[in-house]
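Hi Y.,

Following your request, here is the sequence exactly as I used it, all 170 residues.
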Amino acid sequence: MIHDSDAELRDIIRLRMAVGRLGEKDHGDWWPSLWFTSNAVAFLTPVYGARTDAARYQGVIEAARVVHDNRIGVGQAFHLFRLPEALERRLHDAVVRDEAWSKTGNIPSESDAEELLSELAEPVEANEGPVRVGSAADLESSSWVKVLAGHYITAFRSSQQVFPYFTVNA
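Below is the corresponding structure, written out as tokens. Let me know if you'd prefer a different format.
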């Protein structure tokens, strides 16, 4: 179970799921996946059973990661879908072992995803494309989640694509 001390993990999972859902083909069309459709659930459930939600989470993360990597590049940057390895492991463990998805990541509709982003968001200036929002050192505080939520909700509301990232070096 995720403890209150891991509230940041919950927020990251929720942010990933909201952005993942809003970026799918049937909404924002940022990536070609449809992990949140009833067809995906029907297809995955016989294979994954109780772990279907974790499989959907991983699927949307991978779809979004590929698009972000293609726009930002790989190697000298982190973004919402490619975080430092230690944090990625903690997130993976929270979703798989602790079933955090069902507690924090299950977002039933696009309007729920938009509402979540609005709740998490810190107001930011509208930008399009790759946007440097800081360095890897900024990932040590929890405020980066609010900054990214602000960029994503602004982009979805203005029908733009934004790819906020952190550079490895300051």
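Helices lie at 7-22, 38-48, 52-72, 85-96, 100-105, 110-120, 143-157.

Thanks again,
Q.
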